[in-house]
Amino acid sequence: MSRDVLEEILSAALHEKAIAPDGIADFAAGLRDRARLILEERLRPLKDRVDTLEKENAWRASAILSLTDENARVVDENLRVKDENARVKDEKERVKDENRRVKDENARVRKEHAGLMEEVRQLKDECRRLKEEMEAVRAEWHTASAAHDRLLQHHRGLIRGAAESLEAVADLPVWKRGQARARLAEMAATLRRDSA
Predict the structure, then answer these.
(1) Quick check: 3 pLDDT over 60?
(2) Which of 58, 47, 57 is nearest to 137 (CA)?
(3) From CA 131, how far away is CA 101, in angstroms rounded?
């Protein structure tokens, strides 16, 4: 099983007695958990918001479809009422009251139709607004991803620098043990500062 860069660095530090052997696994696990938590904290709210907006958009699309069907039913009903008016003209005297009722029904249907059309317009506006909001959330997600990539690049650079420092310490002759310890202490302080 191949070891990653972090394990190489930690092994070198252990070999140089810069880290206690029983603390290496915890230190590596802590670094990995920290990176995972940072990524989850930055991306989870954006993904949750995108999921919510997509569900709301699907619901509104379904409502528009339902209202469109209702609108077609109202139009059909309006045509049926007009046919009824044409038939009752022959019985004018007998159906005057009925004719008045039909006219009232027509007015109600037209009002309902106008109300439904307004609601459809509002839902379309809401869908358009939601699409714009989704685009804004996606842009925000891309910005967060780019920030994460920059952070990851910084951490990789830090690990590379630590590895290079450890190699430089390993190349020091035995009689420069004090200098090697000073370099290891400086590297540990840098790592501590960056992980705070």
Answers:
(1) no
(2) 47
(3) 44
Name the pTM for this structure. 0.34
Fold for the domain defined by 5-195: Helix Hairpins (1.10.287)
Residues 6+ apart with CB under 8 A from 151: 38
Closest CA relative to residue 147, chosen from 42, 32, 8: 42
pLDDT at 176 over 90: no
Domain assignments of the chain as residue spans, ordered by start: 5-195
Query: Alpha carbon of 191 to those of 132, 156, 188, 196: distances in Å?
Result: 42, 12, 5, 9
Condensed to tens digits (0 to 9), the pLDDT of residues 132-151 reads 999 999 999 999 999 999 98
Residues 15-48 have pLDDT tens digits of 776 666 666 677 667 767 877 787 778 777 878 8
In the block, which residue shows the tokens 């919510």?
A: 52
